[in-house]
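Hi R.,

As promised on Friday, here is the backbone we talked about, encoded as structure tokens. Could you run it through your design pipeline when you get a chance and send me back a sequence?
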């Protein structure tokens, strides 16, 4: 005998099936979410531990670097102090100006020119202190210029056997007009001549900006000259002499 068809029962079965399917899906999704949460929590915890280890390592490296920087600063201070000490000792032994410094420059020029250092050492050791020196004298003479038409101005020395003259550039007035006197801010030319029967013979020339010096050996004596601006129209020269050699 056939059972009667009940549509309501069939509808309830379908509804139950859908409900179970949806419930299963939600359970799967919830499980996946929970699993993902657990994985994320585990990863975050591991990452935090890893960062803490890296942080500790970085602190250790920073501490080592700070120690190295401190050591380098101490070495730099020691090096600076040593440099200052060496510089002071060098300046004490080898000044940067004065006669000794000029002598060093001259020796360096001679060595660069090819003169053997041993030869210069021998000459220096054979030199004696100055002998038979005369007291320094000071003279003034008018420097000739292109616009000066006065008498020749000169200085006689070495028993009038030597003559010293000088010339320069004309000074200019405020409006640019050349004056008779020389301009001490421009180079001057010094000429030293010796008297001979035929007149005079030039034995030395020196040019440059005042003040400057010059040395001349003549008839067994060494003459040392220092030139400077004497006045509006003149050049001042101070000189002495000693036996040579």
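Update: got your reply. Pasting your designed sequence below so it's all in one thread:
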């Amino acid at each position: 005998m056939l059972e009667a068809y009940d549509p309501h029962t069939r509808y309830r079965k379908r509804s139950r099936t859908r409900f179970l399917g949806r419930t299963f899906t939600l359970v799967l999704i919830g499980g996946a979410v929970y699993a993902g949460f657990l994985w994320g929590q585990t990863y975050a915890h591991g990452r935090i531990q890893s960062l803490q280890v890296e942080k500790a390592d970085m602190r250790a490296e920073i501490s080592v670097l700070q120690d190295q920087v401190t050591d380098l600063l101490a070495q730099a201070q020691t090096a600076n102090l040593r440099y200052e000490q060496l510089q002071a000792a060098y300046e004490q032994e080898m000044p940067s100006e004065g006669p000794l410094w000029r002598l060093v420059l001259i020796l360096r020029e001679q060595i660069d020119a090819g003169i053997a250092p041993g030869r210069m050492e021998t000459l220096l050791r054979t030199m004696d202190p100055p002998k038979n020196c005369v007291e320094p004298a000071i003279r003034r003479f008018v420097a000739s210029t292109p616009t000066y038409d006065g008498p020749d101005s000169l200085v006689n020395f070495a028993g009038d056997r030597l003559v010293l003259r000088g010339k320069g550039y004309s000074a200019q007035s405020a409006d640019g007009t050349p004056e008779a006197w020389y301009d001490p801010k421009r180079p001057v030319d010094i000429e030293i001549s010796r008297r001979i029967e035929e007149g005079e013979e030039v034995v030395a020339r020196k040019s440059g900006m005042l003040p400057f010096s010059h040395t001349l050996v003549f008839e067994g004596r060494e003459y040392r000259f220092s030139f400077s601006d004497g006045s509006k129209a003149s050049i001042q020269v101070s000189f002495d002499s000693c036996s040579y050699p």
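One thing I noticed while checking it: The mean pLDDT is 84.

Thanks again,
M.
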